[in-house]
Design a protein that fits this description.
With about 650 residues, the protein is α/β, with parallel strands linked by helices. Helices cover about 45% and strands about 15% of the residues. Helix 14 crosses helix 20 and helix 17 runs parallel beside helix 19.
Length: about 650
């Protein structure tokens, strides 16, 4: 028996060819000239040579599928079954492409089947041919389809109409539900249908523990079927006698609602389930024109668009959340009766669907998550780049191929570091600057822009920390002025200097090295924490203004790091700290992933504690304050004697790892 397939190298096609080969026939597959290599790979998968699976070079959108006369003559009278599977199965595809492939491609396939004298034409349509019909759509219904406004719905309906009205070869029509991966392996070739919501589920999983109940939507019934059911049913029905002219719904007779489907996949992905699902019928009392007017308000459209874009969900998918159509499949049930071909329960195979997606189709897998992939050839500015966190960060950026700009106060040290970085292959540009001086900061911005044109990444690392109790600060107001000048005003000056070009280019990322002290409200650090808090607040406000212009911020609530900045406080020699290299890894993650904030779990816990039980947080911090004394330098003493550290202090600092005391 001989078979001809369009779309034989596609997702459904590759499984169907496997089934047809098992029947001992020869399979002819339509391929474009440039796609023959793809067929060669599939032959290996099928374990078939060129005698079993034969390539027919052509094009779906050309007359008679673009098959040359000689090949057409050799096929004439030799094709028992012509399967037309090729189509655009993409909700986000443009209307022109869908019309060319789905409608004109079907017309070409029908004409080719007639030209080669095929004995039966099998058209794989879709439940989309019903449009958004409200109610139950039977297999003998077609003209009753409603609301075919979406290009995908319209073209699937029109392509089926071509077969019904123009095909002179005996034909059978199959309308699969929403086809997802294989129920045994999870294999799928692209993100479509329910897969669009997997990224949302994954993000919720990362944000919340699995036991936290969430709120979601109920939605309409979505008819989801695994590819193996569709292919098994298609293969079986195609070889039955006496079924020409019939239409078969390859669907799940007991479909789930959207909310149930999301919960099933949330369970499979170990994410929180939606304990409360909102049914749109709750808002039925609101006139439709009012609901539509609200949806079309510019702020609502902008918010919806931003959220969908972040989740990777095409806007057109929302129109199917309240899908109104159910499908009767009595003809399919009749011909499958007595076989073992049936739709498995989604709950039973959802885990393999999720697992395959997360291992093979998750869009994040295809992003270069290396530091080199992020910064190579990009202009990266690091302030305070000659010591501590700044130097460790500069070393990583130089090794990753960045165009590295470092700024610092000390000219000799700056030249020394620049030479060291260049010796390891870095593209380094060093500028002397005191970022606490606004005129100096402005000169730095101008020099960088004059020489490099723009900045891709700004790391505001230069900072000044002062550890001194308020009791010892009543006559030291300049402590607050010094920290604000560098930590806040200096950083803001650079942001305001480099941001215009970032906004013009619609790309840029700013990393602010803040402090865990902002989250813990660290005693003895009021001057330092206040300046970092000001920068954090400024950045949150700026991020809200520039969110839609792709200029983003990351705030790193850095725990205690062993740098020259903390060297005067000798007690820190005896408490746990991060190394500069570990801190630089946090900066690298900020550049690669661009999160809103990076903080330790202890820092986040302290912030939550201060929010929900502020007095308790205050008591904990006061306990630490009383356990650790001011340094001799903070008290005005020039004694260099190392303070004695008690076991209680060491134990407390170990429990509160990374917090400033």
């Amino acid at each position: 028996m001989n078979y001809f397939l369009t779309g034989g190298t596609g997702f459904i096609g590759r499984f169907l060819v496997d089934k047809l080969l098992a029947r001992g026939g020869t399979v002819y597959v339509l391929v474009r000239e440039q796609s023959q290599g793809k067929l060669d790979v599939l032959r290996e998968r099928w374990g078939a040579d060129e005698n079993r699976v034969k390539a027919v070079v052509g094009d779906l959108t050309s007359p008679n599928l673009g098959i040359d006369a000689k090949t057409m003559k050799s096929l004439k009278g030799n094709i028992d079954h012509f399967f037309h599977l090729a189509a655009v199965y993409d909700m986000g595809a443009d209307e022109e492409a869908q019309q060319a492939t789905n409608i004109e491609g079907t017309r070409s396939a029908v004409n080719a089947a007639e030209a080669m004298g095929a004995k039966c034409f099998h058209h794989v349509s879709s439940i989309a041919a019903a449009g958004l019909f409200k109610g139950t759509f039977r297999e003998d219904m077609f003209e009753e389809a409603e609301k075919l406004d979406h290009p995908y719905l319209k073209t699937k309906h029109e392509s089926e109409k071509v077969v019904r009205e123009s095909c002179k070869v005996p034909f059978r029509i199959y309308r699969p539900g929403m086809v997802i991966g294989h129920s045994k392996t999870g294999e799928m070739d692209k993100v479509d249908g329910p897969y669009y919501f997997f990224k949302m589920i994954q993000k919720i999983r990362h944000a919340l523990p699995q036991w936290v109940p969430t709120i979601g939507v109920e939605g309409g019934y979505l008819n989801i079927v695994p590819v193996d059911f569709v292919v098994n049913a298609l293969d079986h029905i195609a070889h039955l006698e006496g079924e020409d002219g019939n239409c078969f719904h390859l669907v799940d007779s007991s479909p789930n609602k959207v909310g149930e489907i999301l919960n099933i996949f949330a369970e499979a992905g170990h994410a929180p389930r939606m304990a409360m699902r909102i049914d749109s019928r709750m808002f039925g009392f609101i006139p439709p024109f009012i609901r539509q007017s609200l949806k079309n308000l510019p702020p609502v459209k902008r918010l919806t668009s931003a959220v969908l874009d972040d989740m990777g969900i095409p806007p057109s998918v929302l129109s199917f959340i309240n899908y109104p159509t159910k499908f009767d499949a009595r003809e399919t049930e009749r011909v499958l009766k007595g076989t073992d071909i049936e739709v498995p329960r989604l709950e039973d195979y959802a885990p393999v669907i999720w697992d395959f997606w997360e291992r093979n189709l998750d869009p994040d897998l295809f992003k270069d998550r290396t530091l080199r992939g992020t910064v190579e050839g990009k202009v990266c500015v690091v302030t305070g780049g000659t010591s501590g966190i700044g130097l460790a960060t500069a070393e990583k950026l130089a090794d990753a191929g960045a165009i590295l700009v470092i700024g610092a106060r000390k000219k000799e040290r700056l030249a020394e570091v620049a030479a060291e970085l260049e010796a390891r292959g870095g593209n380094v540009h060093a500028y002397q600057c005191d970022f606490a001086e606004m005129d100096d900061a402005d000169r730095f911005v101008k020099s960088v822009l004059d020489n490099h044109g723009h900045v891709d990444f700004l790391i505001n690392n230069a900072g000044r920390s002062i550890r001194r109790s308020l009791d010892l600060s009543f006559d030291r107001f300049h402590d607050f002025e010094r920290t604000m000048s560098l930590n806040y005003f200096g950083s803001v000056r650079l942001i305001m200097g480099f941001a215009p070009k970032m906004l013009e280019r619609r790309r840029g990322h700013i990393v602010n090295i803040s402090s865990i002290g902002v989250l813990t409200n660290a005693p003895r650090f009021s001057a330092y924490v206040a300046s970092k808090s000001a920068l954090d607040a400024f950045s949150r406000c700026a991020a809200s203004e520039w969110s839609d212009r792709n200029v983003t911020f990351t705030t790193i609530s850095m725990p205690l790091v062993k740098t020259p900045m903390i060297a005067p406080t000798k007690i820190y020699d005896s408490v746990p700290t991060l190394s500069p290299d570990e801190a630089a890894d946090m900066v690298a993650n900020a550049l690669i992933y661009r999160p809103k904030r990076i903080a330790t779990r202890l820092g986040t816990f302290a912030q939550v504690l201060h929010a929900v039980a502020p007095k308790m947080g205050e008591i904990v911090m006061n306990t630490g304050y009383r356990m650790f004394p001011d340094s001799p330098a903070a008290a005005g003493s020039k004694s260099g004697q190392r303070p004695k550290v008690s076991t209680e202090q060491v134990a407390f600092a170990s429990i509160m790892r990374g917090i400033y005391w």
